[in-house]
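Structure (tokenized):
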């Protein structure tokens, strides 16, 4: 992958969902034609461990057959409320709020990493690094480690280290923190009226720990932090990624949006506008979790913007290198 075509540069910036439990024509098109860099699995894609493993092998083989880097294959396996893999085939955990000791985090990460590795999944969209303050009806209350930033930081760092020691890329979420949020961004775009100092003192503490632990990826929230950027939600904001996360906090790893199909983004922003902002914000991967025309539109838009705009092309080359470096580190990418 020394000479990157415009098609490859565009496709590697996408992580997408699909329908079906086996390799099919849609997956063939996504990999061979759009050259997508990653896939994300949901309950609709999951049957037995053997079937999932075959699906992942077939997808990786399709990428290799066309001279493409290995695919990132991700899943949301936080434990508890959000866990795509379930009994009787997989170990179920009570979830982050139920963890009482570091040993609990080690056990969760060790077992989960082993089960993911066995089926060919190489990335977990976890841990949740949000902090839910006491006294508010946080939308994240049932998914967070707790209300103490230092405790969340410690548990999150433990999960990251245990995952990554076992070859599973961890993705910390949802930067810069949605624990204070009471409106569900799956449904609408929440505004959070908070300044940078308050975020720094509380919400950012676990994310700093994750950066120090070398977390493979960061996922951005679909929340608009009006004290940081009054216009764009974090997932589309240059102030949040290029400035806060990369420049101020020094994170140089892979950054991805949350699902651009969520209600916080649609219908407020069409896919072309969202992609333009992803590129401007120095976000590496656009996550589009449902089959549909947006995936093709996004790929075409990225290719066009990287071709037409020299500044975005330079940012895009750096972004591609971050993605390929991650793949080399974890997936023996060519």
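Design, position by position:
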């Amino acid at each position: 992958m020394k000479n990157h075509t415009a098609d490859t540069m565009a496709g590697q910036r996408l992580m997408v969902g699909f329908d079906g439990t086996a390799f099919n024509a849609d997956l063939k098109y996504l990999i061979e034609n759009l050259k997508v860099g990653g896939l994300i699995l949901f309950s609709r894609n999951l049957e037995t461990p053997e079937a999932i493993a075959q699906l992942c092998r077939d997808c990786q083989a399709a990428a290799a057959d066309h001279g493409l880097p290995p695919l990132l294959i991700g899943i949301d396996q936080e434990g508890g409320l959000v866990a795509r893999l379930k009994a009787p085939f997989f170990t179920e955990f009570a979830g982050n709020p139920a963890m009482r000791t570091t040993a609990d985090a080690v056990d969760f990460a060790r077992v989960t990493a082993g089960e993911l590795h066995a089926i060919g999944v190489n990335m977990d969209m976890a841990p949740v690094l949000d902090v839910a303050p006491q006294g508010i009806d946080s939308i994240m209350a049932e998914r967070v480690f707790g209300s103490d930033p230092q405790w969340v930081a410690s548990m999150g760092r433990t999960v990251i280290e245990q995952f990554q020691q076992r070859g599973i890329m961890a993705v910390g979420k949802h930067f810069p923190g949605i624990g204070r949020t009471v409106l569900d961004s799956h449904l609408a775009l929440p505004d959070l009226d908070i300044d940078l100092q308050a975020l720094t003192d509380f919400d950012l503490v676990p994310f700093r720990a994750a950066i120090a632990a070398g977390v493979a990826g960061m996922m951005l929230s679909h929340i608009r932090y009006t004290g940081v950027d009054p216009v764009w939600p974090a997932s589309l904001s240059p102030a949040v990624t290029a400035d806060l996360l990369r420049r101020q906090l020094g994170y140089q790893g892979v950054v991805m949006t949350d699902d651009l199909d969520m209600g916080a983004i649609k219908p407020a922003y069409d896919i072309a506008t969202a992609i333009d902002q992803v590129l401007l914000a120095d976000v590496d991967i656009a996550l589009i979790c449902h089959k549909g025309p947006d995936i093709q539109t996004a790929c075409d838009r990225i290719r066009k913007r990287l071709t037409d705009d020299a500044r975005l092309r330079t940012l895009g080359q750096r972004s591609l290198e971050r993605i390929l470096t991650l793949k080399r580190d974890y997936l023996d990418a060519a």
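Reviewer-requested clarification: Residues 16-331 form a domain with the TIM Barrel fold (CATH 3.20.20.300). Residues 238 and 322 are 18 Å apart (CA to CA).
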